[in-house]
Write a structure and sequence with these properties.
With about 350 residues, this protein is α/β, with parallel strands linked by helices. It has ten helices and 16 strands.
């Protein structure tokens, strides 16, 4: 199968391209090499057919898509962003570029898309109130955060909530610019599938970590931020009380989910959580990484970034049943490997 991998020089995309090649497929890597993530063309692209170009350029896509059987769309600006001034670039790279890609796929007759989605479309995870059942808490009050009260409250009675597993049919509630653009990507892909009869697997990645992760940039994930601190000999700084729960999934497992989605049956648009099924707190991740790196223990500093949510823990059952996907990397093994994994070179964000 000949597969166009957008963002294929990046963190997740490069692992997808490598796995495709290793399993007998023919990846074509397209990447704009955005300065927020790259200092130049990474060495690992030399193993594949590589095109330096923008997904938002219809001429580039028009030359690449004929003869392509499917597209793995990994290209995106990621992370919370620095401030609202990032919004136009997020919208351009994540949404306009996706719209151009879908239009050119239709023009070329390419009918299968695997979309890199994100858990951020959920906002807060799933919660239950003892009195009111499943509820959707709103954004946490700044006064609560400042007072060290981090757990969301029932929007109806104000009582404490019990967090649970988030299924794919949970309501969407994006709480950052990045989250809004990732949800818009899903809406565009869903509309495209309805209009064309094409198929889309939207893989909602949870907290991905592993080799080739961005390093030394405000757009990087928390795992990279913790490792950067430890390499400087500093204690990782953990926001809130460190007990916020996430699902840390290794990038090699994410690549395996993409490979499965290229051949799994899909009628129209289908979304699936891509997670480890082994949730841990952010504090646990920082503590385990500090232990294996022999660095100082994490420091809990309180506070929270705008748009941060408390708990997002995925239900892995749908991906297991429909994709046949089950993560293979255990938490302790993945964190131990991450301590010495090669990361992408630090970038200048200007």
């Amino acid at each position: 199968m000949r597969v166009l991998v957008t963002g294929g020089a990046g963190f997740v995309g490069s692992h997808v391209a490598d796995l495709l090649a290793a399993t007998g497929h023919e990846p074509v890597v397209l990447d704009a090499l955005l300065p927020e993530a790259h200092t130049g063309e990474p060495a690992w692209t030399s193993a594949h057919e590589f095109v330096h170009g923008d997904v938002a350029d219809p001429d580039v896509l028009g030359a690449l898509l004929p003869g392509v059987d499917a597209v793995c769309h990994q290209a995106a600006m990621v992370g919370h962003g620095v401030d609202p001034l990032d919004a136009p670039r997020y919208a351009a790279h994540n949404d306009l570029a996706t719209a151009v890609l879908l239009a050119e796929m239709f023009r070329a007759g390419t009918e299968r898309l695997v979309l890199a989605g994100s858990m951020v479309v959920y906002g807060e995870g799933r919660y239950e109130c003892a009195e009111h059942g499943v509820v959707r808490p709103g954004p946490r009050a700044v006064t609560d955060i400042e007072a060290g009260v981090f757990e969301p409250r029932c929007p109806r009675c104000g009582r404490a909530l019990r967090p649970g597993l988030v299924p794919e049919d949970a309501p969407m509630d994006p709480r950052s610019t990045y989250a809004a653009t990732k949800l818009a990507q899903e809406h565009l892909a869903r509309a495209w599938a309805r209009q064309t009869g094409g198929s889309v697997w939207a893989l909602r990645y949870h907290n991905v970590y592993g080799p080739r992760m961005p390093f030394g940039t405000p757009y990087a994930g928390v795992a990279s931020i913790f490792r950067s601190a430890l390499e400087r000999g500093e204690a990782p700084r953990v926001l809130e009380d460190g007990r916020q729960r996430r699902d840390f999934v290794h990038v090699t497992d994410v690549a395996a989910a993409n490979l499965a989605a290229l051949t799994a049956p899909a009628e129209g648009f289908v979304a699936a959580n891509v997670c480890s099924g082994e949730p841990h707190t952010v504090g646990e991740f920082a503590g385990e990484l500090a232990r294996v790196m022999g660095g100082p223990e994490p420091v809990v500093v309180g506070g929270a970034r705008p748009g941060d949510v408390r708990h997002v823990v995925a239900d892995p059952s749908f991906a297991r049943e429909r994709l046949g996907f089950r993560a293979g990397m255990r938490f302790a093994d993945g964190v131990a490997a991450f301590a010495t994994d090669p990361l992408r070179a630090p970038v200048s964000t200007g």
